[in-house]
Design a protein that fits this description.
It is a single-pass membrane protein. This protein has 7 helices and 13 strands. By secondary structure, the protein is α/β, with parallel strands linked by helices. Helix 2 crosses helix 7 and helix 4 packs parallel to helix 5. The longest helix has 20 residues.
């Protein structure tokens, strides 16, 4: 079953329940939906079922054995943190003796000398807030053709890298290519000439840049897993304009289409394919394409339950607290990312799928 397509299927109800509880000590409060007062729990009980096979529940012992003496690094934005904390919670509860020693963003499991690392890199490429040409100080300048040096120096130490990016391209920024400002998002003061690069195109270029840097790195021989664009489910506005996902308690029966998600996903896949053609080293690259499957999961976000303070307690005259329809509740759908990730690792290290 090594050729089973993991990414097309359906969500089925599983009364077995989640892989851990919301008492996990590394769980970020903003993703602790039950701890923040969410009244329903059914969103925790849906499992992903590929069309041609079954996706096994995450096996902590198998994962740690496969990763014996190895380092897995989550590199990217806050959605990368969301997935890393999900993995840590799965391992923490199932292997209570392996209380990972935390040093900055490193978690070490002594039984198998396995290291889990998280490195923050919002765009995965180089950025600075220093002034550049006609872009002022304070504005993020994103260099689309230069990888983020903050993590590239550590790449040879990593056996598995999971990359997460895309959502920061909706933020105010200037885009630089070949040392020239060619575009921006929510910023463009030069009315005398048109922007040549918008945020979608910029994202595609950045994906090709970072993956080409990994695929041509002389000292990188590991496995790079590109987790595809994570869909959000804001309805009636964006995160800062009153967008909501309140009241969604189970997966949608139809694909929840989002034009921005679709085009960002396409640019990411295109960038991945272009980088694969330039690959020169012995590393491996795999696209973990979760976008379609998670487009159904409008029920899996914190929504208004991103804080222990009830949303209705917003002070009079103060704008209501933005909902979170981008990150994922824990426990919740995000745990499936790690089950899919484990299958990708199994295929690479064992040469066969762990599917039934």
């Amino acid at each position: 079953m090594s050729d089973c397509d993991l990414y097309h299927g359906q969500w089925i109800y599983d009364p077995t329940g989640p892989l851990y509880s919301n008492s996990c000590p590394v769980l970020t409060q903003m993703q602790n939906c039950q701890g923040n007062g969410r009244p329903d729990k059914e969103y925790e009980n849906w499992r992903w079922k590929p069309e041609q096979c079954d996706l096994p529940r995450f096996d902590p012992e198998k994962f740690l054995e496969l990763m014996r003496g190895k380092t897995l690094a989550f590199i990217g934005d806050s959605v990368a943190r969301n997935q890393m904390e999900s993995l840590l919670c799965i391992l923490w509860q199932a292997i209570p003796k392996n209380r990972g020693n935390r040093r900055m963003h490193r978690y070490y499991f002594r039984s198998t000398s396995t290291m889990i690392v998280r490195i923050w890199s919002s765009w995965l490429v180089h950025k600075t807030s220093e002034p550049f040409d006609f872009a002022p100080a304070g504005l993020d300048k994103v260099f689309l053709d230069a990888p983020d040096e903050a993590f590239m120096e550590f790449v040879p130490q990593f056996d598995v890298i999971v990359l997460s990016s895309g959502h920061w391209f909706a933020k105010k920024s200037a885009y630089i290519l070949d040392n020239k400002i060619l575009g921006g998002q929510l910023w463009w003061p030069d009315k005398s000439r048109p922007k040549k690069i918008n945020n979608v195109k910029a994202f595609g270029i950045s994906v090709e840049t970072i993956l080409t840097s990994l695929g041509t790195h002389p000292n990188y021989t590991g496995l790079a897993i590109v987790r595809s664009f994570s869909p959000d489910h804001y309805v009636g506005g964006a995160w800062d304009t009153g967008g909501s996902c309140t009241g969604k308690v189970k997966p949608s029966t139809e694909l929840v289409e989002n034009g921005f998600t679709n085009i960002m996903h396409k640019k990411q896949v295109d960038g991945f394919n272009l980088a694969m053609k330039k690959k020169t080293n012995k590393s491996k690259m795999r696209l973990m394409d979760i976008t379609e499957a998670f487009s159904y999961r409008h029920d899996g976000h914190p929504g208004p339950y991103r804080s222990p303070e009830p949303p209705e307690k917003t002070k009079p005259g103060k704008k209501s607290r933005p909902q979170d329809c981008l990150h994922w509740c824990m426990p919740g759908p995000v745990d499936t990312w790690n089950e899919l990730m484990l299958e990708v690792i199994i295929r690479e290290y064992e040469g066969t799928a762990g599917l039934s």
